[in-house]
From TrEMBL:
Its main location: cytoplasm. It is an enzyme of class 2 (transferase). This is Probable dual-specificity RNA methyltransferase RlmN. The gene is rlmN. InterPro entries: Aldolase_TIM (IPR013785), Methyltransferase_A (IPR040072), RlmN_N (IPR048641), RNA_MTrfase_RlmN (IPR027492), rRNA_lsu_MTrfase_RlmN/Cfr (IPR004383), rSAM (IPR007197), rSAM_sf (IPR058240). It comes from Campylobacter showae RM3277. Keywords: 4Fe-4S, Cytoplasm, Disulfide bond, Iron, Iron-sulfur, Metal-binding, Methyltransferase, rRNA processing, S-adenosyl-L-methionine, Transferase, tRNA processing.
Amino acid sequence: MKNLLDFTLDELKDQLSPPFRAKQIFEWLYKKNATSFDEMLNLPKDLRANLVQEFYLDPLKCVKFERSADGSIKYLFELKDGLRIESVLLPMKEELNDENGEVTRHARYTICVSSQVGCRMGCSFCLTGKSGLTRNLTPGEIVGQILCIKRENKIPYERRVNVVYMGMGEPLDNLENVSKAIKILKENDGLAITPRRQTVSTSGLGSQIKKLGEMDLGVLLAISLHAVTNELRSKLMPINNAYKIESVMEAVRGFPIDMRKRVMFEYLVIKDMNDGIKDAKKLVSLLHGIKAKVNLIYFNPHEGSEYGRPNTADMEAFQTYLRDHGVTCTIRQSKGLDISAACGQLKERDNQMSGKTLAKTAK
Ligand code: SAH
Ligand code: SF4
C-alpha cells in the first residue's frame, strides 16, 4: 500500500489515468479535508474502488494531545508501524475583532513538525537524542502532521500557517524526504504553504546545508548553535566534531536566502555554561556580516539531565547585550513548558506512563 500524501502533484499524475484526477484528489485531500475515498464524489466509483486497493491517506493517528496554558497544543501521533512522534501547534497571534465582532486580524499559527523517529545526533541536552535514530519519516508522514493539526483545529484552508522543522529528528539527516515534503506542502492545489513560510532547523551538518542551498527551494534556515566555542559545542553536540563552528558559519554564508529574510540562530541557554556576557560577546563576533536573528531558548530540564535552567536576569542581560550590538534577538517564550515543552518529552513521559490513561485523549 502507498501513502497518498507521499506524492507531489506531478508524481501522482504519473500514477493515475487520466492524470487530471490527481488535481481533484489533491483538492479533496488538502482543501476539503477528505479522510476517505468515499467522500471524493467527483471521482468515478470504479476509480475510487481501485484507489482504496492501492493507497491509504491516513498515515498517522492522533493518540494524545495536551493543551498548555499559553494555547499551544502538543500532539502525539502514531505511525502505521506503531512508532510515535510529536508535533506542536503554536498560536503566534490571537484573532482580533472590532467592536462589531468583525475580524480585523486573523489568528496566526506555526506548526512544529518531526522529521525522524528519534535522532542520531546525540546532543547531550536533548531527550530525542538519547535513544538514537529509529527511522526516517517519509514525506507523507511529515505532510500528514500538518494536515492532521489543521484539520483537528479547524484552521481554515486559506489561513496560512508557518511550518518549522524543529520537532524530533535532524531534518538534514533526512534531506531527501524533507525536501520532498517541502515541495508537497508548497503545491498550489495542496496546502499552498510557500517555502518562505517553512524553516528547516539543523544542528549544523555543513555539507547538507550546502546541498539544501543548492536545491534552491527558497526555505528558511535555522541553525542550532547553542555554544560559541568548539570545546563546549562538541560537548553539547557531538556533530560539532565533524563540523566545527567555523565550517557551519561558512555553510551559512553560502546559503541562498531571500533578501528580506534572516537566518535564525537558536541558542539554548544553560545555566552557568553558556549564559555569560563573554558568550554573548563571542556570539556577536561570530555573526558579523550575516543577516541573522538570534532566538534564545531556556533549557528545559528533564529527568536525568545534568543541566540547569538559566536565570531570567541572565537571559535578559544576554539579550540586551546582543541588541545593543545590533543583533536582532528574541527570547523564546517557553510555549508549553507546562506540558513538558522541549522536543521528545511528551513521548518520553508517555512511555513512562505506559498505558495509564491521561485526562485528555484525542479521538
Ligand atoms: N535537530 C534539529 C531540529 C530541532 S531539535 C536541531 O537540532 O536543530 C529540537 C529542538 O528542541 C531544538 O531547537 C533544541 O534546541 C530543542 N531542545 C532539545 N532539548 C531541549 C531542552 N531540554 N530544553 C529546551 N529545548 C530543547
Ligand atoms: Fe537531534 Fe536536534 Fe535533539 Fe540534537 S537537538 S539530538 S540534532 S533532535
